[in-house]
Design a protein that fits this description.
five-stranded mixed sheet; homotetramer; 10 helices; 25% strand; alpha/beta; 327 residues; eight-stranded parallel sheet
């Protein structure tokens, strides 16, 4: 029976902070007290330090194959990095290969993670091909795998995207079993047109990344999935919201008594799209989808956190490299 | 040179009404006067009558083949009926056959109408298959055929529906040449799912028509096409709006300085969905898409006319029968 | 019997324009025709000219005493100036003196106008002191004087302003007799505080005029009177709307099926608040209440006209001078 | 040094619940542990019980004189009752007498509470007469009395109500010293008119209470104070929100990045206005301002709690009786 005593730190909880000693036995908090009259195998003096619960990053992509690249971090290196920042749990995405089963995806992600990760982890299940076979898998994913968050993509047509009918039918299925729909909201058709238009015009500098994904692409898709979820009466979590226009759709939904769970990511709170307009290829470092937005959008995001309408700050961490550069 | 003198009627214009004599020469109004000191080949005494400009029905479907049925009226019988109600112009839809050209559709509709119609007529051009060939036809349709309204369907997937990319690219093309996008706004995917669900459950009574097309199907699609048009900077005309939820999207667009042209039809102003819930097959008489709505929606439509936000009242006239019953 | 024939002009109506001859007998349009075979006492060749109906300026202030100044134009000079611009009718405001009757105000304005004006004129009746006596005057003002528009001020506390109770009771009275409430919407309390704050700080340059009347003063009051009118079920006309924030309140009202009549003035469409920030006293030339706004507000106003949500463009004409400079 | 050990209870925190032993020394939690190896002066076995932090009722009125009545509970009886329900802290209102100082009110409330209350208590400071003297008291109330919440009434004209100017100036003052404005939002003028109208018509049954305070009275005032606070950049807490229409104003404010703290009360979540329409005088039992609303409003309130837009549930506890019936 292992034990650890952390003395004199300032404990920070969801609602409070206070000075206390914390005793951990077998990886569980066993006691919090003003002063503990206990001994432990190991004692740490946390005088002058904050003592937080471990952070949860609800949106990561370890070892993700994506458009000919790979996320460079493994579950080992990624969870190790996370631990260094105080994040003890990541929630990654087990992504279905079109034509294959959800089960296969979950198994694959377990192979990537199990025995390799050095922190806690859980999975969302990303549904890229919702059909009659997939439909039958839903209860097992929830009840046996303990995964109740089902991710869909409204962008990346022909690769990851589902259409509205697949989305709506998945929602109706999730309602039966207590699941939640989790969505990447960008209008894939609008994005695809703009990307190909710019490519055809030879406009391939990093700035065209943001120009090919204007806020309304995200706002439209956000509004649409909110409508679908309202009709299906399905709980909804929208990942990586970046802009005022999208937030406005979440806010409009409040008027019909609908709650939408909204996530943003640290980069959208701290960086802005001027980075895409730097000279040369420098802007490529911050190419991500959805792209960085404007100062006004940062203000709207911070306000939405303050208004309790954005409840999750994650990372969407995925540093992608070409195959030959994989760690 | 033909001439007609209508005496003593009460002339009604867009802004006024007054008693006057009206002289028509060669089918044009030649004079309006308190009292005309003229003679004509024919004189009508309109004492006690209103004298209107001819009505325009901006939404009709003569001889429309649709899901194995045909609109029962020809351009002859349809325009004759219209004239009896004071409607002297109809605007019909020349509907592209998928795989075929816009030109072919326009030619076909001219064949149906030319020499048969007894009133004035014009066409919207309905685009069901927007591709590189179709794209090239746009300027000619506008400049040679004088048709600047291009209709798209967001419902009837696999038959008439275009996807968002086709819609958006068509809009961008229309902007170049001064066209306007005209849209049937219903979320085809959501409708298709509900229709097949009810069919699978053996629910085929008329009431399931309205239950398979809830207001949010229309509101979502209306909001989406408004977003697409806003981004494309394309004028937009939404046909047959039926409900408060859709109107709310038009109203929301006003906040970003966007104007949307909205049409409703007489049936949505006068009838409500209780008709679908009559005994037996009686409700089938009012099966139309979108379906009739509730009293609150009628109130919202009348208010929107009063608020100047619905500017067009048309009919979407199309009384469909099986082929063997065609006139 | 006087007669006037205007030949060859281009007649412009609310919906159309066409070339025609127009015959006027006894100050009324007697005939409009492609070609009139008539003679008249006087004939004008309007070749190359537009022929409009006379304009109506629904918001003017002739000979208005205001805060120690006087509107410099009399009904004679003002209507003469109006005629030069094609405005043949002005609607002025007969303003009640607090403690005195509506009747007295109407009589006074008739004295100012009757026999002096050289164009047509009508009155709004401005209610600055709504009490039991005033209440009794309402039906007579409407039925005998033919004035159905009752103006109230939500600013100028202690001088012209009525409180919400007076406003609401007046509305309820107007509903009985078919009147309409017409309102100057600015939050008088907020304005007064800002004015006195700037005065106390010695900030008296023209720019402090606009800084003492921020858009939210107007938006708040607009929203409030819209709420009051909604509850009272009274038709509402808001004068001189200047900004996006106020228009947003009109637009929000459309969602509950309420119609608000909104007026803007030419100056708000054409000038902006940068004029207040000119050097010296130059900005004083455009001191008016509400003040000029920003470019974005001009865009919103033009869009609102296009959206049919602003239906009236007037002038609020009142060039005020000190008493000794009166014409 | 007193000590208390509570064993085996289920501890409920803001985010979690778990079984634990809790040791309390000198009225403070000294230790929380899975199993505490300690002894205490007193030990309670809480097996099968929940162990909560003490509740805070942020809105009570002990011994409040109001319109000729008195709140029947003293600080002793009221805090005792609160304790029985697990509420260990109440926040009462020290209400300024018009013409007197804030200091006097705070002193008076301390006299009522100090030495009598058997639970914890704090005060809001209710400002009914904001003038130059009151202005000077603000920093002392905050810094010396530790009261940073300043309550205003938008209803009860002539008794408690402040006008918009007093409200706005108070807000500006609070911003300087870190205060928050706390508001009873009802349009006093609209209410007063309706009350007197019903009285004049002899309509005095309990149902006329709710009819004299329609939702728009509350929504208008809520929207107005939100506007004032936005302009003043002052934090705002609106007490006892009851209805969908008011919540819509809070939600609209989110669009401009404004956060409003909204409170509702248990009675608005659990009871509805049908109680006013009972036979006889029964409805008088639930006469309160604002009044109970409809089922749809309850739904909107619960949803707003779920959406994190209503953050406070209080009681506005004040059971008023005639003076001679005081305890």
């Amino acid at each position: 029976m292992s034990s650890l005593l952390i003395r004199n730190g300032t404990v920070v909880t969801a609602t409070d902070h206070y000075r206390a000693d914390v005793l951990i036995r077998d990886e569980k908090v066993a006691a919090i007290a003003a002063s503990l009259d206990e001994s432990a195998e190991r004692t740490i003096d946390a005088e002058g330090c904050y003592l937080f619960p471990g952070g949860i990053d609800a949106h990561t992509h370890m070892e993700l194959p994506f458009m000919g690249t790979f996320a460079s971090d493994t579950f080992h290196s990624g969870t190790l990095a996370a631990l260094h920042g105080g994040t003890t749990t990541i929630v990654d995405f087990a992504i279905q290969t079109q034509g294959d089963s959800l089960e296969a995806a979950i198994q694959e992600w377990h192979r990537k993670a199990d025995g390799h990760a050095v922190g806690d982890y859980a999975f969302h299940c990303a549904v890229t091909d919702f059909n009659e076979e997939t439909r039958k898998e839903v209860p097992r994913v929830i009840n046996e795998h303990g995964i109740n968050s089902f991710k869909t993509f409204m962008a990346y047509k022909g690769a990851l995207m589902v259409d509205d009918r697949q989305m709506f039918e998945l929602m109706k299925e999730l309602v039966k079993y207590g699941g939640i729909i989790t969505t990447h909201a960008e209008n894939g058709d609008m994005v695809d047109h703009l990307v190909q238009k710019f490519l055809a015009e030879g406009k391939t500098e990093p700035r065209y990344h943001v120009l090919s994904r204007p806020p309304i692409c995200e706002a439209e898709a956000s509004g649409r999935v909110i409508d679908l979820a309202f009709q299906a009466e399905c709980p909804l979590y929208i990942v990586h919201m970046t802009c005022e226009e999208s937030l406005a759709r979440v806010k409009a939904a409040t008027l019909r008594n609908q709650k939408v769970h909204a996530e943003t990511c640290v980069q959208y709170l701290l960086l802005d799209d001027s980075l895409y307009f730097q000279d040369g290829f420098e802007g490529a470092k911050v190419v991500m989808s959805p792209p960085l937005r404007k100062k006004k959008d940062q203000e709207a995001l911070w306000a939405a956190i303050n208004q309790n309408l954005v409840q999750h700050v994650a990372t969407d961490y995925s540093l992608n490299v070409r195959s030959e550069e994989r760690r």
